[in-house]
């Protein structure tokens, strides 16, 4: 059973400290919601764990099943079983979705899937997320709507089957239909009980579809409160105000 | 095309078949300022010894006639006038020309491949005329290989309603020097698609130009280049819209890697007063893969009429986008492969335009080979 363990993580961007001692443990079989106001550092946490070069770790540790994640390259982290669904997936001109997915699947699984098997897997994955099959030939994220990008992130999640997935505001900008489709994908991913999910969100709306076991409130670059699903209800009623005041 | 009606801001004061009309360039001229003259092996100042060999072999489609002719053949120099010193040197120095004719209304069943293989020695001067008669359609491939100091002019005369697709591969050995003028002269409703691929050679300076003689003609000029350490690769385009309702589209993309890899792209498009309804767009993009590489990119769009259908240009040179690499790596794809995917993607839209399967495969293969090194 996998465990992602973040200990006293401090992260700076361009010499400005953004994360100030984050502690968080996500185990297989668990769904965690990380909620916080805009600018509190949620995406910074996600990117730092994924290894984006812009974010400098100034202290702290991140381990996956005891292995030091911070000493791994970005692609090693992904192959070790970490996945980040990005808040703003980038457009990559000239690289087709199918070519990209096949390269990613090959890298993560350590061998190239048979073309026929992969084509079938891809088709089923796209069907389940109501993605038009024509997208396979499109350039990666190029000209995709916000909702299409997010569905495509979840398609990758389902194909790559990581140990621990961090979903950074995958719910933002989705209409209700898309939110349901995306949530179903996340739930399928979590259903095995062998994977862990860290769901980063600004709103409680997605928590009606994806039920968290734990809720963490994030403000000012650290976790300021933790609890069960009831904490989300409290946030829904009261907002983030009292946490932002406390850290200001 | 009257010489005195050349727009003032756009280059080429001189156009002449006579070498004496062109002073030896000093390197300060607008036309020559990017070119390292010392590496031209004397092609520009008359000191090149003409003792080398470039073997020309034409594998022609059955519908096409191929002739080797002398300097006095009346079809030579009909469609174009040299506009720089090396072009004029080649024009006054070549001994035999190749004339490829696609007869009226003929549609060729396969590409005509002209292989030019350099076998070393001193300078060689060449001349090729490709005449596509009205309503004919043809694909012609030029494949430059080996070692040479080669200056040439290629005339494409595309008749009314005819279609010519040209692929020119500069796949020279590392020490080759090639200075070339490709001029397309388009009839009414003619279609001309040029695809230039420059990979090899110490110095390659290729100047594709287009002129129009009737309405409704369409020119599409694509280019792909890969400059490695020490290479100078220069493409100088000139599209001169002199008649109404014609189109031109230019898309040149290059990648540069290694110390003193140098790419130059000049894109001159003129829309004359009389060329109303012109639709033109030109684009140049350079990918700088390492430090020490340099790309000069100069688009010039000169519009002398108020009535264009469209006119635009764009030029961008930069490094690989870290965000692209991060995204691919975050999905487990190792750095080197992510880099290859992104660079391949940069060229993909261009390469997809090559309609001849075997050439497209070869260009893809050549790009792969460049990426592997
Ligand atoms: N790449 C970056 N460059 C500069 N500042 C950044 C960058 N990423 C985040 N920041 C800053 O860090 C803070 C936290 O941002 P972010 O992690 O995106 O918050 P959240 O995801 O919670 O909205 C903000 O003040 C933001 O301006
Ligand atoms: Mg964010």
Automatic annotation (TrEMBL), chain A:
Record's keyword terms, sorted: ATP-binding, Nucleotide-binding
Residue ranges of domain ABC transporter in the record: 4-245
Cited CDD domains: ABC_FeS_Assembly (cd03217)
Coiled-coil positions: none
Positions of transmembrane segments: none
Record carries keyword Manganese: no
Family label: Belongs to the ABC transporter superfamily. Ycf16 family.
Annotated organism of origin: Sphaerisporangium melleum
Name by which UniProt lists this protein: ABC transporter ATP-binding protein
GO molecular function, one term: ATP hydrolysis activity
Alphabetical list of PROSITE patterns matching this protein: ABC_TRANSPORTER_2
Superkingdom of source: Bacteria
Keyword Ribosomal protein applies: no
Automatic annotation (TrEMBL), chain B:
Segments traversing the membrane: none
Residue ranges annotated for the SUF system FeS cluster assembly SufBD core domain, each copy included: 121-346
Gene Ontology BP term (one): iron-sulfur cluster assembly
Polar residues biased stretches: 1-13
Entry superkingdom: Bacteria
Location of the region described as Disordered in the Swiss-Prot/TrEMBL record: 1-27
NCBIfam families found in the cross-reference section: sufD (TIGR01981)
Family, similarity comment: Belongs to the iron-sulfur cluster assembly SufBD family.
Protein name from the UniProt record: Fe-S cluster assembly protein SufD
């Amino acid at each position: 059973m996998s465990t992602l363990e973040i200990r006293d993580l401090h992260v700076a961007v361009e010499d400005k400290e953004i994360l100030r001692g984050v502690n968080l443990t996500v185990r297989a079989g668990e769904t965690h919601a990380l909620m916080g106001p805009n600018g509190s550092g949620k995406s910074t946490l996600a990117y730092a764990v994924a290894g984006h070069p812009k974010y400098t770790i100034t202290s702290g540790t991140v381990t996956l099943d005891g292995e030091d994640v911070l000493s791994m390259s970005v692609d090693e982290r992904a192959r070790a079983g970490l996945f980040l669904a990005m808040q703003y997936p980038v457009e990559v001109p000239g690289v087709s979705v199918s070519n990209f997915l096949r390269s990613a699947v090959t890298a993560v699984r350590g061998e190239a899937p048979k073309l026929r098997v992969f084509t079938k897997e891809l088709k089923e994955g796209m069907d389940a997320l109501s993605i038009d099959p024509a997208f396979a030939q499109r350039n990666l994220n190029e000209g995709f709507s916000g909702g299409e990008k997010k569905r495509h992130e979840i398609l990758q999640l389902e194909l790559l089957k990581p140990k621990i997935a961090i979903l950074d505001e995958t719910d933002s900008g989705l209409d209700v239909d898309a939110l349901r489709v995306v949530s179903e994908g996340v739930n399928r991913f979590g259903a095995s009980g062998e994977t862990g999910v860290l769901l980063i969100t600004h709103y409680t709306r997605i928590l009606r579809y994806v039920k968290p076991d734990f809720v963490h409130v994030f403000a000012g670059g650290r976790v300021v409160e933790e609890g069960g699903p009831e904490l989300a209800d409290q946030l829904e009623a009261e907002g983030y105000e009292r946490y932002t005041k406390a850290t200001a | 095309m009257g010489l005195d009606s050349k727009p003032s801001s756009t280059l080429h004061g001189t156009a002449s078949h006579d070498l004496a009309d062109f002073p030896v360039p000093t390197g300060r001229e607008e036309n020559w300022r990017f070119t390292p003259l010392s590496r031209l092996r004397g092609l520009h100042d008359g000191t090149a010894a003409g003792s080398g060999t470039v073997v020309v072999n034409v594998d022609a489609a059955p519908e096409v006639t191929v002739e080797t002719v002398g300097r006095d053949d009346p079809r030579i120099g009909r469609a174009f006038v040299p506009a720089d010193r090396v072009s004029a040197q080649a024009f006054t120095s070549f001994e035999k020309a190749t004339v490829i004719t696609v007869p009226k209304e003929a549609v060729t069943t396969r590409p005509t491949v002209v292989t030019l293989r350099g076998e070393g020695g001193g300078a060689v001067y060449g001349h090729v005329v490709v005449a596509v008669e009205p309503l004919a359609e043809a694909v012609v491939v030029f494949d430059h290989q080996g070692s040479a100091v080669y200056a040439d002019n290629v005339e494409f005369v595309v008749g009314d309603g005819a279609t010519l697709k040209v692929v020119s591969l500069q796949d020279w050995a590392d020490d080759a020097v090639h200075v070339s003028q490709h001029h397309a002269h388009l009839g009414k409703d003619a279609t001309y698609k040029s695809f230039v691929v420059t990979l090899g050679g110490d110095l390659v300076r290729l100047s594709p130009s287009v002129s129009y003689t009737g309405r409704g003609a369409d020119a599409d000029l694509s280019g792909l280049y890969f400059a490695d350490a020490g290479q100078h690769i220069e493409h100088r385009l000139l599209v001169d819209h002199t008649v109404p309702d014609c189109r031109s589209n230019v898309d040149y993309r290059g990648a540069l890697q290694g110390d003193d890899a140098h790419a130059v792209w000049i894109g001159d498009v003129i829309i004359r007063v009389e060329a109303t309804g012109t639709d033109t767009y030109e684009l140049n993009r350079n990918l700088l893969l390492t430090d020490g590489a340099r790309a000069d990119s100069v688009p010039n769009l000169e519009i002398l009429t108020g009535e264009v259908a469209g006119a635009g240009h764009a030029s961008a040179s930069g490094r690989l986008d870290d965000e692209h690499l991060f995204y691919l790596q975050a999905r487990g794809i190792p750095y080197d492969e992510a880099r290859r995917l992104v660079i391949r993607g940069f060229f993909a839209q261009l390469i997809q335009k090559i309609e001849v399967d075997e050439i497209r495969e070869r260009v893809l293969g050549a790009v792969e080979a460049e990426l592997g090194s």
